[in-house]
Structure formats: C-alpha cells, structure tokens
C-alpha cells in the first residue's frame, strides 16, 4: 500500500474526502512482530429482511478475512459466519450467522484457539440500529447478547483481552454494553449516525478500509492500540 483514499463523516454529518500516503504520512514498519498479538478472529456478517447491500456486506467480510491473513493469521485461526442470503456465494465461511453458530464460535471454537494470555479479535458488519445488529432471518443480535458472548468466551478461555470492531449504522450504541477492562471496542459511528461503504472500488466499508490499511501500512499496530 503506498496510497489510499477514504471518506470520513464529521459530527455534523458531512462527508469529507481524504487521502493517506504511506510514503510521506508515516514511517512504515517492516517487522511482522507488530501483528503477532492476535491469536484468532471471529468475523460476523449480517443481513436485513430486504437483503439491501448483502453483496457489499459479503465483500467486506471476505476482505477483512484477507486482512487477517495478511496480519499473519492462518485459515484455521479465522472463523467467518456469513448471512444466509450470501451462503452460496462464498466458500470461506464456517457457517451461517445464526445464534447457535455464534454461541459455538465464542464458547467452543475461540477458547480452543486463544489461551489465557492471548487475544481474540472480533469483526462484525451489517445494517444496525440502536443496540441491535440485523442478522435476518433470525432476531437481531443485541448489544447485551454480544456482550454475553464475549463473557462466555472469557469464562471458557480464561482470557479477557478482546478487540471488537463493529461496523454498522448506530454501531456506537454498543459501546456501553461491550466496554470492559482489557477490551478494545472500535465502532464505525456514533449512536444515531450512518455507516457507509466506500464510493471507490472495491466498495468495502469505509471505516474498516481505513483501519486495516493503516495497520498494515504500519501507522499503528494492534499491540499498541
């Protein structure tokens, strides 16, 4: 990556175009050691009843899967759950985004990958509302339910170091429920604000695009977050 562009939304709801040049804006780190703090990833994609932009949700979570690989993780350290609508369009998923599969991911799979001194990363993306992430045709995943999944992982693994990245409209409404000592919670919007996909191909979500590109460029490491 030598240059990438992104759009940001300020507190007044206005969109601003930005460019980031890794050759001049940062000192690029070349050591792979900066990425070694993530032991496993759970990637969750959702859907809404009218299936609006399901293809962009799938495109984004597959892109995030690639970023996890680029950060040094292997396929067996990444569990991806895809929405039902896109299940036949990807081969990377462990299964469909259902409550039972999420319970398995956090209570069984992740504790088998992450020890007491490790780190679990969670990336979730879809249409959201206040304290709710749409996972149609199942009831929305609420902030308190996701918090319970994180608690279940902590109890099963003995690890309380968790990084959560959640991209959706009103994703910031999850902060109160998820915030806890040794957790890092990053959301793409404040409560009541919209999240966007990039107008620049390949049209992945803007927050994640800027975040992962900055990490891979060496702007900061997960270990420094």
Question: Which helices and strands appear, and what pairs or packs with what?
Answer:
Elements: E1 3-9, E2 15-21, E3 40-45, H1 54-70, E4 78-82, E5 95-96, H2 99-113, E6 120-125, E7 128-129, E8 132-135, E9 138-142, H3 143-157, E10 162-167, H4 175-178, E11 183-187, H5 206-217
Parallel strand pairs: 3-4, 3-6, 4-5, 6-10, 10-11
Antiparallel strand pairs: 1-2, 7-8, 8-9
Helix pairs in contact: 2-3
Protein name: Gingipain domain-containing protein
GO molecular function, one term: peptidase activity
Organism: marine sediment metagenome
Number of helices: 5
* Gross morphology: globular
Strand content: 15-25%
Strand order of the largest sheet: 5-4-3-6-10-11
Plain-language structure description:
With 225 residues, the chain is an alpha/beta fold. The chain has a single domain, classed as Rossmann fold, CATH 3.40.50.1460. Helices cover 28% and strands 24% of the residues. The protein has helices at residues 54-70, 99-113, 143-157, 175-178, 206-217, and strands at 3-9, 15-21, 40-45, 78-82, 95-96, 120-125, 128-129, 132-135, 138-142, 162-167, 183-187. The chain has a six-stranded parallel sheet, sandwiched between helices. It has a three-stranded antiparallel sheet with strand order 7-8-9. Residues 1-11 and 17-35 have low confidence and may be disordered.
Describe this structure in a few short sentences.
The protein is α/β, with parallel strands linked by helices. The chain has five helices and eleven strands, in the order E-E-E-H-E-E-H-E-E-E-E-H-E-H-E-H. The protein has helices at 54-70, 99-113, 143-157, 175-178, 206-217; strands at residues 3-9, 15-21, 40-45, 78-82, 95-96, 120-125, 128-129, 132-135, 138-142, 162-167, 183-187.
